[in-house]
Amino acid sequence: MPELPEVETTARGLRDRLIGRRVVGVAGVDWPRMLPNASADAIATALAGRAVTQVDRRGKYLLLLFEAGLSLALHRKMSGNVLLLRIEEPAAAHTHFILRFSDGLDLRFVDARKFGRIHLFSSDVEREQFLDQRLGPEPLTDLDGAILGERLRGRRRAIKTLLLDQSVVAGVGNLYADEALWEARIHPERGADSLTRPELRRLAAAIKRVLELGIERRGTSFSDYLDADGAPGTNQDYLNVYGRAARPCPRCGTPVSRVRLGARSSHFCARCQRPVR
DNA sequence: CCACGATCCTGCTAGC
DNA sequence: TGCTAGCAGGATCGTG
Length: 277
Hints:
4-stranded antiparallel β-sheet; elongated
């Protein structure tokens, strides 16, 4: 499941090789729902002849910026991968979108579950509006205990549930939320507005830490995730609680608990992460 | 405004 | 062995 570290790793892998390259066209679109705001033809027409000017990330969106203010925002949801391949490479199964560049390079969106989406924007303002409407602060640069407390004020739902809400904090998903809560020693079902100031500070720091470590390790390849070159990350070898139900907590040895919160599974240590303060 | 369940998809796994 | 039911999950939408 690509979360912030996986999208960041992909963006870094693409940046140097895409900037300056010109789009020739779009190919391989077999699932129009993947393109919610522009047809394949419209994207091809808009981007043909334009060079990439920037490769960026906001939350879990991968952003490709082109000349003339055009841009694409790609969201991989759960199973999507964005791969850079030569045009002659055979298309992998579940390839649903190909952005073709002038010198024989393909950017391919491969997504078995078809949840991924690609949006076209015709100006920076339009794109930023779309993103800001959906996304809270960037955790690596714009988050601390006070800001997190502000975003959670008056919210009584479980802290874990709210960490998954992209309008609270951008980029955190199920895996890194569980890891951050473990790191901060906070029970996932704690009411968000019950967190003390020290807990908020710890949680903000823990979110940054697990995301930064995830980036250093080039992402977590727990299920489908691969980087732009098709290589897995290594963070799955360092997980403390996610996917480790019944295995010992690395801190205290207590078997890791697993509960359902809404439709999502949460992993935590019942000893290190007490339900009440 | 807030909470929360249903929905979209398909590959994989558990269970019979 | 072969089948199917159920699970996994990010974001959005609809309902209370």
